[in-house]
Amino acid sequence: MEKNSYDFELGKIKELIKERGAKRVGLQLPEGIKTVATDIAAEISKETGAEVIISGNSCYGACDIDEKLMRNVDMLFHFGHTDTFSFYKRKPVLKENYQKKVVFVELRSGVDVKPVVEKAVAEIKGDTVGLVATVQHVHALKEAKILLARFGKKAIIGKSRLKYDGQVLGCEFSSAMGTCEEILFVSSGGFHPAGIALYVGKRVIAADPFTMQIGVYEADELRKKRYLVIARALDAKSVAIIVGMKTGQFELSKAIALKRKTVEKGLKAYLITMNEITEDNLLAFNVDAFVNTACPRLVEDFTHFKKPVLSIKEFEVVLGEVRWEDCFVLP
Ligand code: SF4
Fold first, then answer.
1. Each residue of 49-107: pLDDT tens digit?
2. For position 147, which CATH number holds?
3. Is the shortest distance between the CB of 61 and ligand 1 below 6 Å?
4. What's the CA-to-centroid distance between 59 and ligand 1, angstroms?
5. Could you give the C-alpha distances from 290 to 44, 251, 274, 282, 327, in angstroms and in order?
């Protein structure tokens, strides 16, 4: 990972540390960016005199604040995401006074998106397309829209419940909900476009400005794969309900309510806490199926697990409470 690929806003960070007189600061970086963590720590430490502590834990999203580290520092710089404290679906994950300690650094990318958008035009079937991006590229959507107009495509940058129009998270796709049947996702990675296709039910063209790769995600194909996973859970006699222990993914009340409902239906049900939901972490448990109440963005990975791992809505299909066609709803 090139440190130059993103704006780390180090000047602003150093100023803030000095302004607030912070003596000890934390850094939290997403997985792909951790390679530059030590360089950043060294620079901050040298120029501000602050003790810098890097979070070595996984960091998958804006809701994933390293709380323990935050309690032990004067400021925590969380890279790669926007503040979602006010996002209506994520209850305030930290008490107000703690929120002030966290500074979000959005990691805007300076890469030119025009070449990959131009390449993606061939995949756009209709005349109108919805344009979305992660926060790293959301500022480039207007430029992409102008370029698409030159190719006779009307692009719509949808309103978002997040900080910026056109912005998406792995669990928030309001900007893709408009009238367009196709979405052009201008950013890296596969789980956002897969999530949009699955949950919004639209065809998604993913254009990666770094690799110049174009991917196409068909809603029907992804939904069929999930139906197969649900079908494998129909005979389950025992279920483990996973409670995510990451700060913004802790849904204990929902999990307990689901457990009660499951037991009433005559199945055995257990509650299991977990930080990371991996196949290895599930192997030891002697149950027929799992239900994930934590981050929904991992659904694509779960499709390949040996035992079925369902979302709450998908599991409600198994319980006979939700119709198959109504289960692709984000929690
Ligand atoms: S729940 Fe998942 S997708 Fe949503 S902000 Fe948290 S890590 Fe990201």
1. 999 999 999 998 888 889 889 999 999 999 999 987 665 555 556 666 677 899 999 99
2. 3.40.50.11850
3. yes
4. 10
5. 43, 15, 12, 8, 16
